[in-house]
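Fresh eyes needed here. Kindly weigh in on this sequence plus structure tokens:
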Amino acid sequence: MTSGDNLTQSEEDDLETIQLEAARIICGATKLVSINNLYSETGLEPLSIRRRTHNLILFYKMYHALAFQPHSKPSRKYHLIKPPKLIKPTKQFV
């Protein structure tokens, strides 16, 4: 299982195979076409990269209180992820 996903590696591989087959059908390509050329031709990204990008965007929105509040001003009170507390330096360590 990958971090942040609820899919096993086998399930991820199966989904990737389905996406590649769909891309081949769209382009009229055969299985002899390289995967890199197929992604380049269709403008698609591997599903693992798309999931990672989506997770990072969602984390950013949660961290900055932008998620799940479409009609209200973000407030620190409603942060889904609390920012870390910074340790103030003392004279002893300065």
Observations:
- The two ends are 45 Å apart (CA to CA).
- The chain has one domain: 9-78.
- The first helix runs from residue 9 to 27.
